[in-house]
Design brief:
By secondary structure, the chain is mainly α. The protein has helices at about 1-20, 20-45, 60-75, 75-90, 95-100, 105-130, 140-165, 170-185, 190-195, 200-205, 210-220, 245-270; strands at about 50-55, 55-60, 230, 235. The protein has one domain (about 1-270). The radius of gyration is 20 Å and the shape is globular.
Length: about 270
């Protein structure tokens, strides 16, 4: 069974690198967008020297790259919605039914292939950004744990969205607003707290998995929650971190991922997907 699992896993991994559009969207586009975001943000600051941390590392580079890293991980949900619906509900679903392997194992192998692509994307971004931008990574242990937690959450979110939708089109219709909604709640895409002054929005923004992941890195030593840059005046304010809060947030993200996994399995069993 492990040989069959590995064969399916490698198929979905190779598919990303064989399709030019998929390769560009998954690996190259994130890097291009990060550089554009950095240029746009730096254009608004008159004195770039005010952005320096420890005399060399750039605060703005750090903020943008960390936020983008986590946001792109959430797009891992799209991989699973696309791959799993192609397997189970499209015209090619006969492959899943005819395969001499348990349906659940087949689908887990497809998920694992997409997850590895997502992690490779992260490694590529970190490598390229470390070369061309002055980033202060802070606690690498916390950064890795936070990235793994949000990546796992994103993959399982995709599985959950797959089991609650009937086909690929419906899956996209549901997935797009959820993914971009998470980005909005984190404050990365839009300043939602300033636009919507409601307690429920503040609550959702504080406990959104993306926000928790970004705060984990912040409290872990990269950029504290009271370290911010006023892009109008170019002022940087520094503050301390709290490792216990960083670990707590990572555990909360992991708990949400486990809850989604249990719900996905239960719903999939009821709908006879697995």
């Amino acid at each position: 069974m492990m040989n069959k699992f590995g064969l399916i896993f490698r198929h979905y991994l190779r598919r990303t690198f064989m399709e030019k559009i998929s390769l560009f969207a998954n690996l190259l586009l994130p890097i291009v967008l990060i550089f554009l975001f950095v240029l746009v943000q730096e254009y608004q600051v008159e004195d770039v020297e005010t952005l320096l941390l420890n005399g060399t590392n750039n605060f703005l580079h750090t903020i943008v790259v960390v936020q983008m890293l986590f946001f792109f991980q959430v797009f891992g949900a799209f991989y699973n919605v696309d791959n799993l619906h192609e397997l189970a509900t499209s015209e090619t679903k006969w492959r899943l039914n005819a395969a001499p392997i348990n349906r659940l194992v087949f689908q887990i192998a497809a998920i694992a292939g997409g997850w590895l692509v997502s992690l490779l994307q992260t490694l590529l971004i970190i490598g390229v950004m470390s070369i061309f931008l002055n980033i202060y990574w802070g606690s690498m242990g916390i950064n890795i744990l936070a990235l793994l937690a949000i990546s796992l959450f994103s993959q399982i979110l995709g599985v959950f969205l797959f089991v609650i939708t009937k086909n690929k089109t419906q899956g996209y219709v549901v997935t797009y607003p959820i993914v971009f909604g998470l980005g909005a709640l984190s404050g990365f895409l839009i300043p939602i707290r300033e636009l919507v002054n409601l307690r429920i929005v503040d609550f959702l923004a504080d406990w959104s998995p993306l926000t928790l992941a970004m705060d984990s890195v912040a409290y872990g030593g990269t950029v504290g929650p009271d370290r911010y840059i006023d892009l109008v005046d170019g002022v940087v304010t520094y503050g301390g971190g709290d490792m216990s809060i960083a670990i707590r947030n990572i555990l909360i993200i992991s708990a949400i991922a486990i809850a989604l996994a249990v719900a996905s399995y239960a719903i999939g069993k009821v709908r006879k997907i697995w």
